[in-house]
Amino acid sequence: MTAESIASAGRTSFSGKSNRIRTLWLALLIVALAALCALSIGVGTREVAWTDILAALGGQVDSIGQAAVSVRVPRTLLALVAGAALGLAGALMQGVTRNPLADPGILGVNMGASLAVVVAVAWFGIASSHAYIWTAILGAGCSAVFVYIIGSLGRGGTTPLKLALAGAATSVAFSSLVIAVVLPRNDIAGGIRAWQIGGVGGATFERISHVLPFLAVGFAISLLSARKLNSLALGDELAAGLGERVAVARAVAAFGAILLCGATTAICGPIGFVGLIVPHLCRLLIGVDHRWLLPFSALSGACLLLIADIVGRIMARPAELDVGIVTALIGAPFFIWIVRRQRVREL
What we know:
The chain has one domain: ABC transporter involved in vitamin B12 uptake, BtuC (Orthogonal Bundle). 77% of the residues lie in helices and 0% in strands. The protein is mainly α. 45% of the residues are buried. Its main location: membrane. Keywords: Cell membrane, Membrane, Transmembrane, Transmembrane helix, Transport. Belongs to the binding-protein-dependent transport system permease family. FecCD subfamily. It comes from Phyllobacterium leguminum. Pfam families: FecCD.
């Protein structure tokens, strides 16, 4: 088979949805995201009049309502960028591993970042935001490599089921280690436990500004990997026939996902299931072409995390549910449905 015929077969396999339909869904998704941002600013544990909302957006903080809105604005921004990062990371991981169950939480990447941060805080006393971020990225990377090595052992090499099992076992083991590290340290236990749930409360523009450069690099690497992921989806042999360096393509895309996961975990804590749910829903809408799937996953992830944050504020008034709890409530049944529907076959 010539390279031209392989390329033609690849183009055919990604042409299931017309660009007109994809553009329509993209426009609807952008409108939905804008509406959710407005709703996130306007809805919370405290009822706020629209006059106070408009005044707060203009920089005024003269009343309690205006002060509440001024807190919601960075929170909304953090939910937007964190959801986009997790949705995009999930699509990347599913593309790199060709595993329909791949997700930063299920594959143990988030928990690896979490363990690294907890160890660094408890044993080395790190305190700066940049130290948190670098530590989380290192932990996410080490965890991803560890899970992939474990999932590759034995007869048959790497399979979706073995990766999912290795990731689940690694997550449980790392979670236990986090508890073991935190238990003797009452001075940090409260803050670590709250962070472990995963949430966007307490966001500030300063904290977000520290993580944005890492997320920007992760987004750029990820979106530039779209064509390579399309080649990998055809199989390693066909991708190599197209001139693709398979190992390099996988490593670059995986690095982008690790940057996104590590940086997001550092600032929000480990939030699960966003990267699992979003790519599957996007494939139903726009097909499997990663040139469309990756940006759609980012926008849909932002929408999902904003919805989870809004629901968490409404469900437990006057208290709040962190987004990590809400996404787990949504994601666990979805995970079971994916297992039953996909029968853990490759993408």
